[in-house]
Design goal:
seven-stranded mixed sheet; cell wall biogenesis/degradation; cell membrane; cell shape; peptidoglycan L,D-transpeptidase activity; disordered C terminus; Arc Repressor Mutant, subunit A; EC 3.4.-.-; 19% strand; Penicillin-binding protein 2a (Domain 2); Beta-lactamase; disordered N terminus; elongated
Length: 710
């Protein structure tokens, strides 16, 4: 009986325990249900929003640059459209995904793999063969973790064998090239995969399969196209490629302005100087990505705006004619005696009233071939000789002399130095005034003027005490005319000239007639322009107008801005003083009285339909070009530089011209290349004006556009 009773008690206890267990389970489920209900009711919407959360990122795309025209709206730089295939990766795109896309794309387009480097191929091989790459290193898991990811990958790169690299097929290289292009840009920034010679068939294939090519797209891009007929190529400058991107020296500046690192920008001269006008405004697209970084949709927010068109002051036709004139002159010059070192010449033509540059022409002649050296017109300096004597006469006026003043022309003989004299007076002594001194190009007159400025008295066979301040006084006046200072041209890289550092009395005398300091052809032009316009030193400029871009090749857009003359300084002398020097310049070109009393330029310019005023120059110098071994210890040969400055018409100047022919000849055989070039340039200008006047009928595009904007 006791046993049965015990069993019945145990049976009674079991249901109680089960009930307790069931109760606990019930409580737990109840808590769980309550918790889920709480989360659903209180935080449900928050979690739903988090799951459905998307991010919006602005993506920019480049627009075509503005185009560049000459003053008569002749297009010098255009945009050539081309088909392109682009790739834009998302913020979460993995290397494996990019590789798959590259493999698919490689079956649809042909690529040039010549630029594929060995390192590019190694990176691709490692990506394709991760196990073999790991095995190559012979590192344990522990050693791998100890050296870090960067050093481990470096070890993988170093361990790839030549045989493994040689196993890559041409198809592998195609994929490697495309994969490299994919990695060239930043997340959500389009990069060109192929932009040259993209065929219509390739565009069609890619367009049909865009759904299987995430990130890939087709588009229209542009490349710069420069007029092959113009010799202004160096002045126009160039634009970086997408691969070059932003120049290192200007990286931070451009990034601060909103550029992307792979943007194309102007990297020299006009393209660089007016980058802000030519670049335009990028198109903006809003790309929406999900929580995993995948692009859901892309919407254009702003279509962008093509860069503004830039109109230069350059006359392309006159530039071309001037280039040919220089070439013919150099070819002729090389047939004359003493010209073994002759290899270059420069011409600058401006409007002396506005500072507009019509021509920047420079040519180098080497081994029977010509090279454009337009940049040399403002980046190279030479001793210019007597062409600067007008500035010396003006210096005399500045420091107290009156128009018509006289000096004794006689040889200057100082103790222990060689005789210095005028070319036409080696031994005699006679008076000359400022006009006759300019007409006959008197060195002695200029030296005497400089001595008066220095407060020094000349005594034959004596010595001179010239204070250093005298150099400064003379150069100050020269600088007011643009000699030895920057002209203010709106292009980078301008030279200031060569300022002699020696302060001996003889050097001071040399300075007074252009035999010491060196100047650029552009400085020479600014100097004569300042005389032509009665004392206004105007900054030469190459930008004439900025206009809205158009989509029509034969039209120009509405005028935005126009460059006005920028006066750098006004020389504080009466107009009559300038008129006196201008009379002297007129005599130089038109006086045919005979013998040494004739103007030094009259043989070439007297009796023309138009009247030129100006000054010729011949400077004794030493060769400083590339065709001499300056380490040999043998002094460079003595040479003559020939120069010219002038303007026309005399009574109402339209153009100012400067000519420089460095190292024109050795010895005494003056080939007069400076005169030949100057005469032909003036002829070309006035003939061109006549031709245009005949063609003008009131609908001439250039004239019409100017009238329309007024």
């Amino acid at each position: 009986m006791k046993v049965k009773k015990s069993r019945s008690k145990r049976k009674a206890h079991i249901p109680i325990r089960l009930n307790i267990l069931f109760f606990i389970v019930f409580i737990l489920f109840a808590v769980l249900i309550l918790r889920l209900g709480f989360l659903q009711i209180v935080y449900g919407e928050d979690y739903k929003r988090e799951v459905e959360q998307t991010n919006s990122t602005t993506v920019t795309k480049n627009v075509p640059r503005g185009e560049i025209y000459d003053r008569n709206f002749k297009k010098l730089v255009a945009n050539k459209p081309e088909n392109t295939i682009t790739y834009t990766r998302s913020t979460s795109t993995k290397s494996a995904d990019m590789l798959k896309t590259a493999e698919k794309l490689s079956t649809m387009i042909k690529v040039d793999t010549k630029s594929l480097t060995e390192r590019d191929q190694i990176d691709y091989w490692i990506l394709k063969h991760p196990k073999e790459a790991k095995k190559n290193t012979k590192l344990t898991e522990k050693e791998q973790s100890e050296i870090g990811n960067d050093d481990y990958y470096k070890k993988q790169v170093e361990s790839v064998t030549k045989a493994q690299l040689d196993s890559l097929t041409q198809q592998d290289k195609n994929i490697a090239f495309i994969y490299r292009q994919f990695n060239a840009g930043y997340a959500l920034t389009p990069v060109n995969v192929k932009s040259k010679d993209v065929t219509d068939v390739e565009i069609a294939k890619v367009s049909e399969n865009l759904g299987d090519l995430p990130g890939v797209d087709t588009a229209k891009d542009w490349i710069r196209s420069y007029d092959s007929k113009t010799t202004l190529r160096s002045i126009l400058g160039s634009v970086t490629s997408e691969k070059q991107g932003l120049p290192d020296e200007s990286l931070q500046k451009y990034l601060a302005l909103g550029y992307a690192r792979n943007d194309r920008v102007g990297q020299s001269y006009v393209e660089q100087q007016y980058e802000s006008l030519l670049r335009g405004s990028k198109a903006e697209y809003s790309s929406e990505t999900d929580s995993d970084g995948n692009v859901i949709s892309t919407v254009q927010e702003y279509a962008g705006k093509k860069g503004s068109d830039v109109i230069l002051t350059i006359d392309a036709d006159l530039q071309s004619k001037t280039d040919e004139i220089i070439k013919e002159a150099l070819k002729y010059g090389k047939t004359t005696p003493g010209t073994r070192l002759l290899d270059r010449a420069y011409v600058v033509i401006t409007n002396p009233k506005t500072g507009e540059i019509l021509t920047l022409s420079g040519q180098q002649y080497k081994k029977g071939k010509f090279e454009d050296d337009s940049l040399g017109t403002f980046t190279s300096s030479y001793v210019m000789g007597s062409a600067i004597k007008g500035a010396t006469v003006m210096a005399g006026y500045t420091y107290g002399k009156q128009p018509g003043y006289s000096e004794i022309d006689e040889p200057i003989i100082l103790k222990g130095t060689q005789k210095k004299s005028s070319w036409f007076n080696r031994d005699n002594s006679f008076a000359m005034n400022d006009i006759s001194a300019l007409r006959q190009s008197s060195n002695s007159f200029m030296m005497k003027t400089a001595l008066d400025i220095a407060g020094a008295t000349y005594v034959k066979d004596g010595s001179l005490d010239i204070p250093n301040s005298a150099f400064d006084k003379l150069r100050k006046v020269y600088g007011e005319f643009g000699l030895g200072v920057k002209t203010g041209i709106d292009l980078p890289g301008e030279a200031t000239g060569i300022i002699g550092q020696e302060k001996e009395p003889g050097k001071y005398l040399d300075l007074s007639y252009g035999q010491y300091d060196g100047y650029t052809p552009l400085q020479l032009n600014q100097y004569v322009s300042t005389i032509a316009n009665n004392g206004y030193r105007i900054a030469p400029h190459i930008l004439k107008q900025v206009r809205d871009a158009t989509n029509e090749d034969d039209e120009v857009g509405a005028l935005q801005t126009q460059t006005n003359p920028r006066i750098l300084n006004k020389i504080d002398l009466p107009k009559s003083y300038f008129e006196q020097v201008k009379k002297g310049f007129y005599e130089v070109m038109n006086n045919t009285s005979g013998g040494t009393t004739s103007g030094t330029g009259a043989t070439y310019f007297a009796g023309l339909d138009y009247k030129v005023a100006g000054k010729t120059g011949t400077a004794e110098s030493f060769y400083a070009g590339p065709d001499w071994d300056y380490t040999s210890g043998i002094p460079a040969p003595a040479v003559w530089n020939t120069t010219f400055v002038g303007y026309a018409p005399y009574d109402d100047p339209e153009i100012a011209v400067s000519v420089a022919v460095p190292w024109a000849y050795e010895g005494d055989s003056d080939n007069k290349l400076n005169m030949r070039i100057a005469k032909d340039v003036f002829d070309a200008y006035f003939e061109l004006q006549k031709e245009r006047a005949k063609k003008a009928d009131g609908t001439d595009k250039a004239l019409y556009s100017d009238k329309k904007d007024k």
